[in-house]
Write a structure and sequence with these properties.
3 domains; single chain; 402 residues; four-stranded antiparallel β-sheet; Jelly Rolls; Serine Threonine Protein Phosphatase 5, Tetratricopeptide repeat; alpha+beta
Length: 402
């Protein structure tokens, strides 16, 4: 059976598979390399391919040396239209390409492939091939092969090209070499989510306050990663403005908190931690924990009260008033919020607003056994111990005598 018939049989045998196989990827003919190179006698030359598209997992290349007046019968791109997904049947694909490389001249050359420009430049100067990712030391007048990212160092995740180095074996005449390189692009990987890029998102997630508050953040961060990958290509996500990226993270985190079932436990844990930190006098840390609840839109009236009290204890009275008033909107009957709001007004030099609240609730209890007046006195004792300004305390207590 001659070469033409053998090639036709090969294509018929694989054409039925190609309909399904190519669903996972495609031959990128738009970014294929086709170059005609003239190499001077006894010379070396390096040719860089066109940029390999993101998601390239395999390339098929063909090298053909032609005599002066010969023409190529078929381009490699046209051949590959009939070649299926290279995964699993790479040898068959390369074999078909090889059969179409039958036209060649009598000249021969050696060649080597490099995965970075520095090594290729060194080859051009010295002929050094020790660090080449592929070497053809036996002179050939034609060659065709497939290289896979799984089995060759010629295709690296962080490299966007290949460098072919040719050495002429004609000691008298120049040579004409045709180089064709066609990349196979995996559709999923073409979105740019390499292993390193996925690790980047996971690490960013684990550094977030939300993830830190979880006992086990693995499932949560994997959920966030999945949502980022589905919504964006990696390059698109990296180009977002900081405010856009923060908004996207927040939306994904909120969705994942619900989906992973962590939303019910995370905020309970945060509330317990904040309460313990207040008891220990670590008010700054308590603020940080409680703000996570607030920022994620899960705060209740008690959370705002905790935040307001911690701000009072750290002498941030304006912030205390702001958050206590937000808590008042959620539950205007919660007297602990009202009392802390009065305290905040008092320290913020707004005695009139403070007086109004102190007087309004002086005959009520803040819980089953503690009166409003008793609670105010206990708070004032605490404030004195931590060094908050106490000049108006007696003035407030006299209000309860009338």
């Amino acid at each position: 059976m001659n070469s033409r018939k053998l090639f036709l049989v090969l294509l018929i045998g694989i054409s039925f598979e190609s309909v399904f196989a190519q669903q996972d990827g495609y031959w990128d003919k738009e970014r294929a390399t086709t170059k005609e190179i003239i190499v001077s006698a006894r010379d070396r030359i390096v040719i860089k391919t066109e940029d390999l598209p993101t998601g390239t997992t395999e390339v098929v290349y063909r090298i053909t040396l032609l005599d002066e007046n010969q023409q190529m019968a078929n381009s490699l791109v046209s051949v590959l239209k009939s070649i299926p997904d290279p995964t699993g049947i790479s040898q068959g694909s390369a074999g078909a390409v090889f059969l179409l490389s039958k036209i060649s001249g009598d000249d021969k050359c050696k060649y080597a492939i490099f995965n970075n420009d520095a090594l290729a430049s060194e080859y051009k100067k010295s002929g050094e091939t020790a660090k080449a990712c592929y070497i053809q030391n036996v002179p050939v007048n034609k060659d065709a092969k497939g290289l896979s990212i799984d089995r060759s160092l010629c295709i690296l995740p962080n490299s966007n090209a290949m460098w072919f180095g040719f050495e002429s074996k004609n000691w008298i005449m120049k040579q004409k070499i045709i180089l064709e390189v066609v990349p196979w692009v995996n559709k999923r990987l073409s979105r740019g989510w390499t292993l390193e890029n996925r690790k980047l998102i996971i690490n960013q997630c684990k550094a977030s306050e939300t993830a830190k508050s979880l006992r086990d953040s693995d499932d949560f961060c994997v959920c966030v990663l999945d949502k980022v990958q589905k919504e964006y290509k990696f390059q698109e996500f990296q180009k977002l403005l900081s405010i856009e990226k923060s908004k996207a993270y927040k939306d994904f985190e909120n969705a994942c908190l619900k989906e992973t079932g962590a939303s019910n436990t995370i905020y309970l844990d945060l509330r317990n931690q904040s309460r313990d930190l207040v008891i220990q006098g670590q008010y700054g840390s308590a603020i940080d924990k409680t703000l996570v609840i607030v920022v994620n839109g899960q705060a209740n009236a008690a959370d705002y009260n905790t935040l307001g009290y911690a701000y009072i204890m750290t002498k941030q009275y304006g912030k205390a008033i702001k958050f206590l008033k937000e808590g008042e909107i959620l539950d205007s009957s919660e007297l602990l919020i009202q009392m802390n709001l009065a305290h905040a007004y008092l320290f913020n030099k707004d005695f009139k607003s403070a007086k109004s609240i102190y007087k309004k609730y002086q005959f009520q209890n803040v819980n089953n056994s503690l009166s409003w007046t008793q609670k105010v006195k206990l708070d004032f004792e605490t404030f004195k111990k931590v060094g908050l300004p106490s000049g108006d305390f007696d003035r407030v207590l006299r209000l309860f005598e009338n």
